[in-house]
Amino acid sequence: MNSKPGLVYVFTGDGKGKTSAALGVAVRAALSGLKVAIVQWYKEKRWPIAEYKIGKYIKNIRIYPLGSGFFKLPTDHASRAQHKRKAIEALNLAEKLISQVDVLVLDEVNNAVKDKLITLTQLIKLISKRGKTHLILTGRGARPEIVKLADLVTEMTKIKHPFDKGQKAVKGLDY
Asked: Which tens digits make up the pLDDT trace of 125-172?
């Protein structure tokens, strides 16, 4: 039995691939027999995102899209209060799941801290409760305090992106 605390991975930066990297680790963990949960801070249930189907094919992964969309972007349709309520709901679910799974992905949680929808203190408290659960935190702008707590940090750096030329996200590649 492993008595070491779970590892903390952080995928951050302005480049694409943070959630994709986390999903890759989550699938690897699940296929290795670990129980995995993915709590998403901004993504909404109504979005046609391919990853929502993972649980249909891999039984030991559960995804919880609890967001109200991306905050302060042109597509934002929710009030700040609605975003904050959803972020707290995601945090509360993560706290509940942390002792029930082997790997817990906190998708876009760094953005939620940066956008002041949850506090840095709340996130640090959650990390401190991880026990043997491995945590994967994604999102832009990971705070230095989180980077210091982490065991692995990868920064995705954007060199080029189709969005810069006005191209929209591609189903199957981006969502």
From this structure: 999 999 999 999 999 999 999 999 999 999 999 999 888 888 888 888
Structural domains in the chain plus CATH codes:
8-158 (3.40.50.300)
pTM over cut 0.90: yes
Tokens of 162: 């189709």
What is the CA angle 19-141-51, rounded to 5?
Answer: 10
- Is the separation of the CB atoms in 55 and 62 below 8 Å? yes
Handedness of CA 142, 81, 41, 149 (dihedral sign): positive
CA dist., res. 59 & res. 150, Å (int): 28
- The 3-state DSSP class for residue 171 equals coil
Residue type, 105: V
Residue spans of alpha helices (H) in the chain: 18-31, 54-57, 80-97, 109-114, 120-128, 144-149
Q: Which two tokens stand for residue 69?
A: 């969309």
